[in-house]
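Question: does this match?
>
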Amino acid sequence: MDAHTDSAPQAPASGTAPPDVPNGMPPGLSGPSLRDRARRHYRLGNRLFDLRAMEGALEEWRKAGGLWRLAAAARPPRRERLTDLRAVILLLLTVLLVFNLVYGLFPRNSAELTTDAEDGAAGDRVTWWERWLDTGHPRGGGSPAVTLRDWWQRVERRWRLGSEEPEPDVTVPPELDERWPDLLSRYRQPGVTEPLDYHLVAGNGFLRTGDFTRAAQAFEQGLPGVSRPKQRADLYQGLANAHYYQGYRTDAEGLASYDLAQVQAAAQAYEASVRAEPRALSLGNLGWMYFLLGQYGQAEASSQRALQMEPNLHYVRLNLGLTRLVLGRNDEAYEAYRTVIRARPEDDVLEGGINDLREVLRDRPGSYPFGNLVMGLLARAKGDRDLAQQALQRFLRHPESDPRWQRLAQQALDTLDAPLGGL
């Protein structure tokens, strides 16, 4: 029997459905089973063709074609549908994970990726990265979210540092409390390369906790061998603050009294700080030390020097006004106080000026009646109506008051609700 297997005619494109398959989906059959049966009919048709049984081969091929058409139209089984659903879910999860990875790892720093907004306004500049990743969440407020970038940076730091904490760049002297150097070394500003002055850090730490004796000791221990002017100025300024607060006390009304020996030590430290590096803050505080010591000429000169460097140091200008008041130069004192009032500073600045006046009037009763006028003006600017009224009325009752100042006091009393009225 000659075998002819080189080629076989294709199943006809059309034809009647095989007799053993009814119209529609056979019950209990699925797409794969229909395809299996179609392959069997196709192979049987090939064998019949080899046997030269053309009619039988054509019939089998027609059955195979019909089954293949039914298999193509058949719905996938439930198992296949579940498999497809799982694939879709996995794809979505993969997309979400990749998005979170990109969102967390890459910086959203406007300084690095800023593009100019269409209107060119600096306040409306948004990075292209932020526009692309904008989720509509409010910016700022609340607890910061921990992202994959945070975890990676933490792992990277631990990898670099190992299991041990890094050694400090300077050994902490044994006489210093290690709390302050340790805190500042952990939270110092990034990019700072200068070694920490642990005496300065510890001294400021003790100042903040009210341990002024140990603060002074820390600053003094750091002074020997220091050559940089800025570092010496910092240490002396801290030492002056420690001495000042060692001799500072307040009574039940919040008014201060001073140990003049400590004030003298503070003045000497401020003088050393100014010699190392002149600063408006140190000069202003030095002027206050001179005032407390009764050295009014030096107090005025130091305050003026500070104001030349920083004209907006309101507390220094109040000290200057008080110094001129004590010297009996009321016109100049009034100008200093009026300048501060017109600047509309914070209430605590005005409160400080009021308390300084109250202390002077307490220690030297009847000596400076003009102090009641400026106290009333400061209280009116602060919004303390009762104190303003009391101080202005005391001034008006004083028999030696200048008529010019009496008119000003009366005008201020008549306009208590207008802080700048008449000024």
In short: Residues 162 and 388 are 65 Å apart (CA to CA). Confidence is low (pLDDT under 50) at residues 1-26, 107-147, 163-170. The longest helix spans residues 78-105. Residues 294-423 form a domain with the Serine Threonine Protein Phosphatase 5, Tetratricopeptide repeat fold (CATH 1.25.40).
